[in-house]
Amino acid sequence: MSRSLSCLLLLLAALGCHRAPVYDQSYRAKSQDSRAQFLILHFTGGTWEGSLKTLTEGNVSSHYLVQESPVVVYQLVDESQRAYHAGLSSWKGQTQLNAASIGIEIQNPGDIPGPDSVVFHPYPPAQIDAVVALVRDIVTRHAIRPERILGHSDIAPTRKVDPGPTFPWKRLADEGLIPWPDAAAVAAARTRHEATLPDLAWFQARLNQHGFTLPPTGVLDPLTKQILSVFQMKYRPARYDGLPDAETAAILEVLAPPPAKTP
Prior knowledge:
Structural class: alpha/beta
Shape: globular
Largest sheet: 5 strands, mixed
Helix content: 25-40%
Number of strands: 9
CATH topology of the largest domain: Lysozyme-like
Number of helices: 9
Distance between the termini: 86 Å
Strand content: 5-15%
CATH architecture of the largest domain: 3-Layer(aba) Sandwich
Radius of gyration: 23 Å
CATH superfamily of the largest domain: Peptidoglycan recognition protein-like
Number of domains: 2
Order of helices and strands: HEHEEEEEEEHEHHHHHH
Strand order of the largest sheet: 3-2-6-1-9
C-alpha cells in the first residue's frame, strides 16, 4: 500500500469517528414561537421562464413560487432558511423582514405600461385557489397572525406595488385569513367624511397607525400619495389614484382606529 493511500485511509477513518455532539433536550422553554412572523405575497412581474431563472439563479429568492399555467406550487427555499424577497422593508416598526418572513411569489406579468396607464394582469382563479391553500397551510403551521399576511407593497410602498390591484385580497378575508373592514362601519364613516374630509395630518397619522412609516408633513407629498395609492390598491382597487377621499378615510378609520388613551 502506498503512503498516500495509507494517509487517505487514516484521514477517512478519523472523519468517520467524528460524531456531532448530542444535547439533552429534557427541558423546553415555554417562551418561543416560529421565526416566521410574517407572510409576504408578491407577483413576479415576468414570464414563467424569466421568473424561475431570477428566483433560482439570481440575487433574489422566495420560499415558494406559484406557476400560472399549469398551476404548480414550487418550494424554492426551505422555510427554515432565509429567502431574499422582501428587501428594504418595514411594518409597524419592524424592519428588514427577510429574516422574519416567508415569501410567496405568484407568477404574473405584473404592472405593464399601456398607452394611457399601467395595466395589471388578472390572476386566474385556479392559481388563486392554490395561493389560498398555501397561505392557509403556512399560517396554520407557523401561527402567523392575520394582520401580518401582507403584500410587498405594504412593506415597501416606495419601491413596490405587488401583488397589485388585481390580487383578490377580499378572497383571503372571506376565507378568514386576513382582517377586513366591516362594510357597514365603512359606509357610516364615509357619510361623515363626505361632509367634512379630514386633513392630511389625519390621513398620515392613520396610515402610520395601520403599519406604514411616513413623516407627519401635513401635505400631500409624493410619499404620502404613493402610500395612499398602495393602500387603495388593496382595500379599494377600483380607484387607486393616491388622492385622499371620503371612502379611503372611512376604510382607514375602521382599519386603524387611534390607540386608546391611557387614564
